Amino acid sequence: MNKNPQDAIGIILILILFIFTLFKINGFFYPLKWARREIENNNFVSDVGMDKLTEENLYKTSVVFPVFNTQQGSSKTEKSSIVSKLLSATGSTMFDAHRNLYLKITKDLNYEHTGWGLISETLASQDGLDSLDFAMRDYERGVNPKIGIVKGTSPEKILSTISEYQETPWDYISSLLNSSNELSISKQVSCVELFSLLSQPNSSFCLPYFHMVEMENSSQGESAEQNKESAQNENSKQSKKKKPIVELGGLAVIKNSKLYCFLDKKLSRASNWVNNGIKSTCLVLPNSYGTNSSIEVLLSHAYTKIKFIGDMPVAEFKIDVTSRVNEIGYNGKVNLNSYIEEMEIAQSKYIESEIYDLFKYIQTNGIDIINVGDKIYHQHPLKWRKIKGDWTSIFPKMELKVEVTSNINSTGIIKTTLIKGSEKKL
Amino acid sequence: MQQTNNQSEYNKHRVQNATQMKEVLGKSFDVKFHPIVIGEDRKIQIEFIYIDGMVNFDYVSGYILKPLFQQQSFRDASDSEQIVNLIDKGDIYFLEQEKLTDMDKATNGILQGKLALLIEDQNIVFLFDVRGYEKRPITAPSVEMAIKGAKDSFVETLKVNMTLIRRRIHSKQLVIENIIIGEQTLTNVAMFYVEGVANANLVNQIRAKISSIKITGIFGPAFFEELIVTSDKYAFPQIMDTERPDKFCADIMEGRIGIIIDGFAMAYVLPTLFIQYLQSPDDYAYGPFIASFTRIMRYGLALIALLLPGLYISVTSFNTEMIPKNLTYAIANYRSGVTFPTFIETIIMLLAFEVLYEASNRMPNNIGQTVSIVGALIVGEAAVNAKLISPSVVIVLAVTAIANFSMPDIGFGNALRLWRLIISIMSSFLGYVGLVFSFIVLLFTLVKIENFGVPYMSPLVSTDGLDVQDTLLRPSPDTIKKTTKHKSFEQVTE
Fold this sequence. Notes:
The complex is a heterodimer of chains A (426) and B (494).
Chain A: H1 5-25, E1 42-44, E2 47-53, E3 58-71, E4 79-91, H2 94-100, E5 108-110, E6 116-120, H3 121-126, H4 133-136, E7 146-150, H5 155-164, H6 169-180, H7 191-198, E8 204-216, H8 224-232, H9 236-239, E9 242-255, E10 258-262, H10 265-274, E11 281-286, E12 292-309, E13 312-327, H11 336-365, H12 372-379, H13 381-387, H14 391-397, E14 399-410, H15 422-425
Parallel strand pairs in A: 1-5, 2-6, 6-7, 7-8, 13-14
Antiparallel strand pairs in A: 2-3, 3-4, 8-9, 9-10, 11-12, 12-13
Helix pairs in contact in A: 10-11, 12-13
Chain B: H1 2-8, H2 12-25, E1 31-38, E2 44-51, H3 57-70, H4 72-76, H5 80-89, E3 97-100, H6 103-111, E4 115-119, E5 125-128, H7 158-166, E6 174-181, E7 187-194, H8 200-211, H9 221-228, E8 240-242, H10 245-253, E9 257-261, E10 267-270, H11 288-317, H12 325-335, H13 342-362, H14 365-385, H15 391-405, H16 410-430, H17 432-448, E11 450-451, E12 454-455, H18 487-490
Antiparallel strand pairs in B: 1-2, 2-4, 3-5, 4-5, 6-7, 7-9, 8-10, 9-10, 11-12
Helix pairs in contact in B: 11-13, 11-15, 11-16, 13-14, 13-15, 13-16, 16-17
């Protein structure tokens, strides 16, 4: 009972502080990024598209989010489905456009589960990626979508096309990127990585780009029976109308935070040879039998060594490639030892020529997408300090060398072809 | 006339003693006073006092009355002193007898079911332990069930329980001390320890603590448990109770002190450590790999039972970025159209679970199942269909309940239930911050507990090097030292 009154005052003050904290954290005074947001009161944006309407000088933002349709009934008959919904709005800034989206929605937009942010070619080349500034602020928690460039069309069109496939754009684009690993012509860059790349002076880097191609509708996902029926149909012309398909194009080059150019598939792959981005790929090489052989690359690892000749840096890339023969292209007897030796040499030369083409292109355009500057900084930090001011003039002139070591470790256990009668022909 | 004189000269001591006892016990109709005469010419008066229903009449007739009337030595006895000498020499064939001069002690003996024998002219009472009241047979444990191993459990009778221990530990170092507590109930409390293994300071402390208990009677386990623990009252149990004699023996062989109270079908072990509540007798019935896996799983289940509802509230109301996209969509889908916000439905469901738990505990077994079916299945499904609650919260609460029921100790499970509610409420206000904050408060509370100088969280928080054998993992028998003293008990000082 002999409690000190000061203790009581202390307890009361702690309680007041605690209650104040409760209100504060719950966003009672003003909305905070960690305030309460009931899960059902959110539209979880799966993908965002950002565009610039040049004529109107307006920014356009498009979002895709799932809408849940639950049909009420008994528990056994209750059906639920998730449908993607696309909304777009324009504004004088990107954030203004984003806010104007709220005129069309009843729930808050939540970007915590955003998978892809697609930026139009126009926006990326005119305003550059600085237009993403509003997304870089830390008011939105956990935002880290992957970033891609849209070529030749608008992100809205891409998102609406994918939504028509009954698939969320996130899943579709991610699957596209994963599938492209078989060719190694692309790469994935998250928003956080992008901000880090943008913060570097004179930075050049690559982002994946997407474009749309037209395909005949009849070849898409229809059964043979349906095809037969449609062929007999008088309106077969209508069934063969072109259908737009979203395709991965390759890599887009960003220089000084703006879109600079697009690389074709070969140059995209060449950048992956040097940047250790090869997961798997296919090389078609001519052989001494007069046919083409298909080589599947299994592993590739690049090492970079920077030397200095005087004040001029020289970058030497050594690439170890492990592959296997998937298609010899010749049905006769093959001397495997000499064939493998021949193919290894051909593979090395082919890859080297692909990479030299890339070197020529990037040096001509002054785009260091193979991170030579970064490698000099890490390997020779003192020398880098001397040359970094002149780097833009040094890079096009410096010597870039590549040496590929090939190792074909398998041709399969079947020594001769299984095609019936092929031996006789030869 | 002779008889009248005898009556009038009725021994002053016996009259005094019997009157004193009649004053104390005579108001109860079940206390029987039975005077008889024995000896030469049957002139020596004696009187039996006992409580009807608590003595075994076969023992009384066969071992006490029969020699008194039929044995020649007693028939030839000419005075009461001779009778006393004969009983002292063992002419009554009953081992469990004691000679008292203190009437209070004699009265207590009668109240415990013993037979008192008063003899004229003598200021002494012989007490015979002929207790023969009804007792429950030894059955298999009902709560701490084990798949392999012993199938016996403690009963309400102290003597039977002591026998169960003696049958397992034949060591001469095993000491059983008797302490009587309860001013009115005069309950026998037996304290078990292995001399040389148990810390003497610890034994003295616990003995003093039990002796110092001032209470009218021990009617429920909580009366004793709350009085014996030295720490402040926390939700987590600080005195281990068990109904398994094998577990009790294993614990006292580790240097703990065992306590068995007459009338309780369980035993206590002191001092208790946190890790004990996550150990099961089955851990020592299987190999170290299986036992360690089960034990690790139990730690995980304890965390699930404690944190899952709070975590669910946090991720659905505050931190949706912490769960994968498809799970977010699934929960949002199920939550759409539900009447209450997540935290209210979770708190309602937690309370509903408590109600169901209480109801099924109070109901007879056959009706208890009906309550579960009606409560969980019918009401639960109807509530989901009526969009009062979402299916996801039902899943969360069901997983939590199953995890809670997998705890080996009910008291520990109850503590988790209480803290789960606190953590859920804190999470509903502050999200992850509340979850982490309340969990830290819980850890702080646990680390602060100390009983009889032994930290509750030892050996996990030992500052004297980690003595973590047989904690998270169950080592093999050649590395485990079950017979040695627990390291944290050695540090107890006066």
